[in-house]
Amino acid sequence: MTDIDEVIIRAHREEWARVVATLARRLGDLDIAEEMAADAFATAVERWPVDGVPPSPGAWLTTTAHRKAIDRIRREARREEKHKEALMLSDTSQPLGAIDDDRLRLVFTCCHPALAMEVRVALTLRMVGGLTVPEIARAFLVQETAMGQRITRAKAKIKAAKIPYGVPLRADLPARITGVLAVLYLIFNEGYLASDPDKEAVRSDLTAEAIRLTRLVRALMPADGEVAGLLALMLLTEARRAARVSASGELVALDEQDHGAWDRELIAEGHALVRARLASGQAPGRYQILAAINAVHTDARDVRDTDWSQVVALYDQLVRLDPSPIVRLNRAIAVAEIDGPQVALAEVDGLPLEGYHAFHATRADLLRRLGRSDESRAAYDRAIGLAGNTAETAYLIRRRDQLARP
Amino acid sequence: MAQYLLSVLADTTDLATAEEMAAIDVFNEQLQAEGHWVFAGGLASPSTATVVDGRDGEAVFTDGPYVESKEFIIGFWIINAPDLDVALRLTAAGSKSCNRRVELRPFLGE
Questions:
Q1: Rounded to a whole number, what is the distance in Å from the CA of B66 to chain A's nearest CA?
Q2: Nearest CB partner across the interface for B83, out of A82, A164, A172
Q3: Which intervals hold domain YCII-related (chain B) (predicted)?
Q4: Is the ipTM of this complex over 0.85?
Q5: Domain region containing B69
């Protein structure tokens, strides 16, 4: 990869959402904003190697995309009189300071309750996260063409039904926030465990983006416990990022991580948020419980010090709110530390998660601990076949190859 | 300003109760006072419908609705609203007033 490629990739990561959000506000049309943003990046790929990288890539991209949008609107205005109105709304002199709010507007529009949940997630990942349609399709185990149609239909509905481009009224905020948080958490997870084998194992751009947006939402809703919980959960997870992938690019399991490599500052911030939520005395929601579980993990000086009974108790609380198979799978992993792998395996077997790599990886580990090497190897094979993340695949292959040969 | 069709859905042709009618009147007055009102009306039972096909030569009349379904439209509002958030709030109030589910659908743009 040349230097210029890296500059363009970084610009895409850092500027995509800004370019789309700014254009969407100026033009009042999400579809054109997305298309022109993509067009501007394509122009950058052509021009920057020849002309050199502009001093402010973000401003260059926004200006280029905006100019392309104006050209297109002018072309269409010749055919359709009404587009002249859109042309008059656009204003190239918008101060750059409004950009962060534009991204938040974009988030709330993409997470509008009139859109189905899976549509909100896909749209936010595309418009705000800047993920490509194939990446999003892979993250949600659906066909690329189906995902493309889902996003196209969503944009058509936003336009036809006039879903507003803005932050909702304060009275509507609590109801609107739940969908936004789910979307932010999914973006974070996509960054934390990138699903594309051609991508870096951990995409700090996406985790950082999710954290940044969550901080923004928290600034809007400082009293919301779940916003604080989600931020704490992200911080406590992000804190372990450096320890989570080895120098050779392999995933490092929690029990093998170098605690010295954890980011103490992020952990302190995450713990403070969790303590503040506990002190509030309000019943915690899903994200607050997950944050508390991560607080227990990051509290332990050593994995042997982990208070597993506390972890299981928190998972019990979570199962009451969300009895989904994935929550029960994670609970079983903690149960193994207290009641042993046999009990945990009994809880894992029968969960309807055949297509989920972590299900097979968990079974493989439990079977290994029970000395059932052949079954463990078969489970590792299933997990390796399903895992998309490079670091995770490397880890699973090593663990499988460490099994006693038959 | 966009226009929206609010279709009232039901699986019986039972008329609105006196209580529901009173609530609908209050809602209609609110729509008029706030400038959202375009038109509204209740519909007779689907069994009273006639499907007409005048595309080719002499019109063909078919007794009954174009599609038999468990749920059907028994009334509607047409409203003006600046965006979907306002339309959703009004539709929620309309649904509450007539005590039935309501489908909100935008008219094609200007």
A1: 26
A2: A164
A3: 16-93
A4: yes
A5: 2-106
Chain B interface with A: residues with Cβ < 8 Å: 2, 81-85, 87-88, 105-106, 108-110
Contact B84 A168 (CB under 8 A): no
Q: List CB contacts (< 8 A) between A169 and chain B.
A: 85
Here the CATH number for the domain that contains residue B84 is 3.30.70.1060
Nearest neighbour of B84 by CB, restricted to A82, A163, A169:
A163
pLDDT in tens, chain B (110 residues): 899 999 999 998 888 899 999 999 999 999 999 999 999 999 998 989 999 999 999 999 999 888 888 899 999 999 999 999 999 999 999 999 999 999 999 999 76
Token pair belonging to A212: 């940044």
Tell me where in chain A the CATH 1.10.1740 domain(s) lie. 1-93
* Residue B62, strand partner residues: B51
CB-CB under 8 Å, B108 with A160:
yes
Q: Do B85 and A169 touch (CB under 8 A)?
A: yes
Closest-CA residue to B4 (of B90, B99, B75): B90
**What architecture is the A1-93 domain classified under in CATH?**
Orthogonal Bundle (1.10)
Q: Look up residue A18 and give its two tokens.
A: 């800004």
A203 by Cβ neighbours in 10 Å (0-12 / 13-18 / 19+) ranks as buried
